[in-house]
Design brief:
Layout (H helix, E strand, L loop, with lengths): L1 H14 L1 H14 L1
């Protein structure tokens, strides 16, 4: 889970707002 969160964090920084939305969606989806 930590590895995935770290990778998502990098994508979040790269995509900005779009990445944030994707991160939030993935987080909610994982529960």
């Amino acid at each position: 889970m930590f590895e995935r969160a770290l990778h998502t964090k990098i994508v979040l920084i790269g995509d900005g707002g779009v990445g944030k939305t994707a991160f939030r969606r993935a987080w909610l989806s994982e529960g």
